[in-house]
Amino acid sequence: MDDHNEFQMTTSNSTEFTETVGFSGYSDFHTIDWQKDLARDRMRHRYIIKRRQNSLWELIKGAHDALSGWLCVLLVGLVTGCVAGVIDIGASWMTDLKHGICPQAFWLNREQCCWSSNETTFDAGNCSQWVTWSEIIVSAKDGFGAYIVMYFFYIFWALLFSSLAALLVKNFAPYACGSGIPEIKTILSGFIIRGYLGKWTLIIKSVGIILSVSAGLSLGKEGPMVHIASCIGNILSYLFPKYGRNEAKKREILSAAAAAGVSVAFGAPIGGVLFSLEEVSYYFPLKTLWRSFFCALIAAFILRSINPFGNEHSVLFFVEYSKPWIFVELLPFIFLGVMGGCIGTLFIKANIYWCKFRKCSKLGQYPVAEVIIVTLITAVIAFPNPYTRMNTSELIYLLFSQCGISSGDPICDYKRNFTNVNQAIEIAAAGPGVYHAIWLLILAMIVKLIMTIFTFGIKVPCGLFIPSLCLGAIMGRIVGIGMEQLAYNYSKNWIFSGECTQGDDCIQPGLYAMVGAAAVLGGVTRMTVSLVVIMFELTGGVRYIVPLMAAAMASKWVGDALGRQGIYDAHIALNGYPFLDSKDEFQHTTLAGDVMQPKRNEGLAVITQDSLTIDDIEVLLKETEHNGYPVVVSRENQYLVGFVLRKDLNLALANAKRNFDGISGQSLVIFTNTSIVQNLGPAPLKLKKILDLSPITVTDQTPMETVVDMFRKLGLRQILVTHNGRLLGVITKKDVLRHVKQMDNEDPSTILFN
Amino acid sequence: MKRFLMICCIILIQIPYFINAQSYNLYEDKRCKCICPSINAVLNNTDSTERILVIANVGQARCDCDSVILPKYADKIKGKEQEFCPRCECKHENRNTTVIKVVVIIVIWIISLLSIYMLFLNLLEPLLNKRSKQNYQEHLDEDDASSMHQDPNAHNLPMVNVNASRSNVLNRVTNQQDKWKRQVQEQRQRIYDRHSMLN
């Protein structure tokens, strides 16, 4: 019965206070108390089980409750798949709008417009149905005038799309800018950012990412897709009170949603689950693993049925490989990994430096102007080079794929003769087209690297998976072509003689591109397992796991040696989000007594268990701003009784004043069971119900190592510090974060916290 | 009300596109795309970069050289089919033009709706507000005050007004809108002014 009452009280609490503290009972920019929230859920669960025997209706309600987790992730998967389909189709259409239009059916992009046209030329995929802007204006496809018109329209559309994206973000949902993964990581670690996963963020982020990808900026939609999926998870969790009203439980749904986000971004469901586990999630029980798996599966299935690219896959750059690789190639793969680590670290350092500059200088005051300038520069530089002019996903696809008969790009300009029937493709000397393409690709790589440094962090939705994949793919392809020509020219050499028999195509530059892409992405994000699985799901070939693993590992080693943090951790640190990284180790010898508040000579705000009046407590609440107060036996004997939260105290006092007669400012507030016989004065107010009798306590001699570990692993909000059983002070998560920063010689005041 | 009118306008603008779309039925939803080297490659064994592209509307099972290329070029490569065909690459592709059409039109709609609403908020509303503030100075002040305090019961209080229910709904909508605007303003300050987040 006691359970029952308490459960009802907590629910009524949350309904009454939704206006000020939200459904879950936490204010904006506060950390959640995992232990308490999970305990609350277990209590609710026990209550439902107890009621289940009462009637059939209660039984159905119990079943619904048990099912609601799966139901919720099912819905999240469905909606995520649909939204991803809309984004993919919209972005591919709008990207081609920069070049021309399909007048007969304006909603088709170039590829779709020339769907059933036999006259498709191989160079640019143009056909008579597809009309370029130059054809409309100067009625010419080639020539100087046409080039100028195309150039102009390319820049015009890019500027239009990006400025629209920046304005929409600024006017409707400023939270929609950026990639969102650092913030999602922080939220999943137990932080509240109101509105970050809201309706408007979802809409603006979806529309904004379509616009900014179409603008040809050096960014991708994969990171924002994780944010979009998390928004969907958050919004849909409100349909199920079990998750909507309990922040700790809601994070289980958000973890699953993040998995679905990567799943649709790369068409890699397992990679998505592992990404959620390795990179974003903080609290990831097995139950969440299975739900993430299911959610990712549903999302991938839905996107696959929408078939946005017409290739039966959910990403544009899906390629299928089956050729074996030879052992010697492991060396260039590791070299690619090392290079990937270097490029990744260089990118992180430069990007963080630029973001710091933006944060502190006047540049930060002109977000829209910055977006427009970056777009203008990108468009002006990108258009003359065919490899930067094309959509980045298309470029990645081109670099990943093998040269066959169907590929007409200069990068496949080999001196091949198609005389041998059994081997359509064989190793051959590179033609002039290949060398020309290599120069263009090197230029493209430099441009992309520099532009991405300036682009990641501007105030439009932007992710960096695609740019880093692209950088790596270019690097890998160039190394691959080099290896291929080496094998062709020195096929008699002992290195190649075993596997590369005469004319056999034993080296595939496409595979190198893929390994390079994995290496740079690994260097930037410091992912390993999930990265390899994502890449392997992209190719559908199990035999390339070892090269990918070698590259990812080398890249992580080199990256970690050059700079400690991945890009997301670096951005978390830059913004000062309260994120206690479970990867870091706390290696200092401080004690709990040094960190706790208050310091030795200040007073501690406590509540005594049976000697304060309502007025006293109200004064205390007014004078201090703590989120909770320890309750002690008496001022003289500060033996700990329990811990009471500020919001509970506020609520209980307001309730008592409204509902009970005879309660006045002079009534005593009693946190004990024993009722003191007291005839004079107004009736006492018993508040034992709101008292947490089992607060986590440590002694003042506990090493901070242990305390930090407790905060990390138990997800605590505060710890009480005692000495000889008497209360000395409190350590909150904020104190811990500050202390960690201070010990690392960083400015502790930058932490974002209320 | 204003939003509703706006939506109506947009629908009217978009209707011609829909009619146009209905009457258009030229594009197929599946194709088989075959690419082969030049026929010269098998006939006189000379190297040539010219290639043949054939797109046919056949099912997945029949998407190969035998049923797509040979009927078209049978006379040219007589007897050399077995040599020519292995060099061709055939790929079957599927799409759904209806889905593409609907999605693209939805995207255009959402973007134009948002842009118009943005223009409205930035250009028209300050003007309208100025005018209505002159007329209903007191009323608006009172409204502002109540929403500032975030009193959850504000709209449940008995209204003195005769058509209370209507103004109640309207109030609630404006309250919600004000609340949302305040939230966006807060986010904007946090990101653009104080730079405390998302840099």
What does this protein structure show overall?
The complex is a heterodimer of chains A (754) and B (199). Chain A is mainly alpha-helical and 754 residues long. Helix content of chain A is 57%, strand content 5%. Chain A is built from 30 helices and eleven strands. In chain A, strand 9, helix 29 (704-714) and strand 10 form a beta-alpha-beta unit. Chain B is mainly alpha-helical. Chain B has a three-stranded antiparallel sheet with strand order 2-1-3, with no helix packed on it. Residues 1-5, 18-25 and 137-162 of chain B have low confidence and may be disordered. Chains A and B meet through helix 2, helix 4, helix 7, helix 9 and helix 15 of A and strand 1, strand 2, strand 3, helix 6 and helix 8 of B.
What is the topological layout?
The complex is a heterodimer of chains A (754) and B (199).
Chain A (H helix, E strand, L loop, with lengths): L1 H15 L1 H4 L12 H18 L4 H42 L2 E2 L8 H4 L17 E2 H5 L6 H29 L8 H8 L10 H16 L7 H16 L3 H4 L2 H20 L2 H12 L5 H21 L23 H31 L6 H16 L3 H4 L2 H9 L31 H24 L9 H25 L4 H4 L11 H17 L3 H11 L5 H18 L4 H9 L16 H4 L11 E2 L3 E2 H10 L4 E5 L7 E6 H14 L8 E3 L14 E2 L10 E3 L4 H11 L3 E6 L2 E7 H11 L11
Parallel strand pairs in A: 3-5, 7-8, 9-10
Antiparallel strand pairs in A: 1-2, 4-7, 5-6, 10-11
Helix pairs in contact in A: 3-4, 4-9, 4-10, 4-12, 4-14, 7-9, 7-16, 8-25, 9-10, 10-12, 12-13, 12-14, 13-14, 13-23, 15-19, 15-20, 15-22, 15-24, 15-25, 16-19, 18-20, 19-20, 20-22, 22-24, 23-24
Chain B lengths: L1 H22 L6 E8 L2 H4 L7 E6 L8 H4 L1 H4 L7 H4 L4 E6 L2 H39 L1 H12 L15 H30 L6
Antiparallel strand pairs in B: 1-2, 1-3
